[in-house]
Amino acid sequence: MIRFLRAHGPLWKQIALYGVLLAATALILQWLDYQRLARTRWDEVYAVAIAFAFLALGIFVGARAFAGARKPAAFDGNPQARAALGISARELAVLQEIVAGRSNKEIAARLHIAPSTVKTHVARLYEKLGAKRRTDAVNRARELGLVP
To answer: What is the CATH number of the domain that holds 104?
Structure first.
């Protein structure tokens, strides 16, 4: 393309001029068609204009109404209960994975620790939460507000 422009010099200017003239002619014809439409179907043109005005008004009012809606406060995990039970940050991470329904192997892979370490954390969580099974631990943690 660049070689063509260099080789043919002012030819590209002539092509661009014809393109601009063609676009202007198409614009004028469309304007005339719009004028004919506006004269013959003026009621429909006004109805469409009113519909767009109400659409814009609805979007504006909706945006203003919902802009003030606040997100709920972030979940803090009840630090008082966590401190009272002596649950460490790693144990809390394991507890959150248990709540998500993951197995010990999955938890170990996600937290980059050994499966035996996960078992140790789970056993300590059972002890601290007074639970015998995972479901008991999850229910107790939810009651205390440690997990959502």
So the answer is: 1.10.10.10
State how far the Cα of 148 lies from the Cα of 96, in Å rounded to an integer.
9
pTM reported for the whole predicted model: 0.52
* Domain, as residue range, for 127: 79-144
Q: What is d(CA 85, CA 119) in angstroms, rounded to the nearest whole number?
A: 19
CB atoms within 10 A of CB 97: 20
Q: Which DSSP letter does residue 133 get?
A: S
Q: How far apart are CA 129 and CA 138, in angstroms?
A: 9
Among residues 38, 67, 96, the one where a domain terminates is 67
In a domain, 74, yes or no: no
pLDDT digits (tens, 9 = 90+) for 70-115: 666 777 778 888 888 899 999 999 999 999 999 999 999 999 999 9
- Cβ neighbors of 126 (< 8 A, separation 6 or more) are 132, 136, 137
- Euclidean distance between CA atoms 90 and 96, whole angstroms: 10
